[in-house]
Amino acid sequence: MSAEKSIPILDLTRYDEVLKGDIAKGVAEVFASGRFVLGPANDAFEKAFASLLGARHAVGVSSGTDALLVALMALGIGPGDEVVTPAFTFFASAGVVARLGATPVFVDIDPATYNLDPKKLAQAITPRTKAIQPVDLYGQCADMEPIRAEARRHGVPILEDACQAVGASYRGKPAGTLGALGAFSFYPTKNLGAAGDAGAVVTDDDALAESVRLLRVHGGAKQYHHDRVGGNFRMDAVQAAVLSAKLPRLAGWNERRRAIAARYGELFASAERQGGLRLPVEAPGNRHVFHQYVVRVADRDAVRQRLAAKGIATAVFYPVPLNEQNCFAPLRQQGRCPEASKAASQVLALPVFPELTDAEVERVGQAVLEAIAKPLA
Ligand SMILES: *Cc1c(COP(=O)(O)O)cnc(C)c1O
């Protein structure tokens, strides 16, 4: 065993002192204001976030899951409706649909990008389809042009799950602004992370923004008068202050993630040519922000163990496609998603975060090259 320190998949304690100071100042202002939920801190963050994305509205909410949920509520999704979403994503993307009494309809993924395969979209659409909800997985936008064409053809809105892709873009347009609504998560591990749960809904549509704002506070514009049944989807002011302090750093952090990905790409290029692993693909027109750096390997669990023995942490996002989850067993008649199943057995996420050092990147790279044994089928 080497005496070297182990390398985590993500380390949220590597804070620089300047940022710590900026955050402390923002949080102190919240305490001074006595406004701990929504309030001026939330308004300031909404304004800055909308402006960063060039969107008309950003609405601060309690999490990425609630951003998706309240956006679907604003679209009027309910029992009997279907929402089309990829089979290979974080659970929340489909969980929110089911919670509204609607049915998630799963589409298989493009094996190169892991995002919803637009070629398989048409067959998933029925007269009950009320929304298409693509996901920008691992920090790269779904192939939105053909998805938008299909949505237009059927007159259904797009809710973009951009929870993993803050700062990414597609043909020059920011992630989260490519559909009628976009949902973001600021869970601490995301590229822009709060100090707890938080999220945002983004839209250019004034009426949808107004609906989301109402539904966020139990569906009433006037306190104790309720026009619709909403929920408590409010953002905490402390989270808004933390996010405002961090927002100016986002572009630099995403650059660093891209630089790490580029270095992994160099280190792994010849192994990929020999068939030992498959690298992430940045599709043309996309700017990937590498929320995760995910390779494919054969015998994935053995590779993970060899890396763990060298002190290198990895992760699997996600080991079970959503269409194969127990809670969605009643939806099995929708059929299989073979590319999602295959990805679930091969994907391996390597450490990628802005504070990862160059020396650590080299160590991870060498260790991966030593750990891959079998060629990919
Ligand atoms: C993180 C995430 C969510 C949910 O966000 P939370 O803030 O954890 O509720 C939804 N969809 C995707 C794709 C995510 O990665």
Question: How is this structure best summarized?
Answer:
The protein has eleven helices and 13 strands. It is α/β, with parallel strands linked by helices.
Features:
single chain; 377 residues; alpha/beta; Aspartate Aminotransferase, domain 2; Aspartate Aminotransferase, domain 1; 2 domains; four-stranded mixed β-sheet; three-stranded parallel β-sheet; 11 helices; 37% helix; globular; binds pyridoxal-5'-phosphate
Walk me through this protein's architecture.
There is one protein chain. By secondary structure, this protein is of the alpha/beta class. It has two domains: 17-107 and 114-248, Type I PLP-dependent aspartate aminotransferase-like (Major domain) (Aspartate Aminotransferase, domain 2); 249-371, Aspartate Aminotransferase, domain 1 (Alpha-Beta Complex), CATH 3.90.1150. It has eleven helices and 13 strands. The protein has helices spanning 17-33, 39-53, 64-74, 92-99, 144-154, 206-216, 237-246, 250-273, 300-309, 338-346, 358-371, and strands at 57-61, 82-86, 103-107, 129-132, 159-161, 169-170, 173-174, 181-185, 199-203, 277-278, 286-287, 293-297, 347-350. The longest helix has 24 residues, at 250-273. The chain is globular, with a radius of gyration of 21 Å. The two termini are 31 Å apart. It binds pyridoxal-5'-phosphate (PLP). Pyridoxal-5'-phosphate binds at residues 63-65, 89-90, 92-93, 135, 161, 163-164, 185, 187, 197, 199.
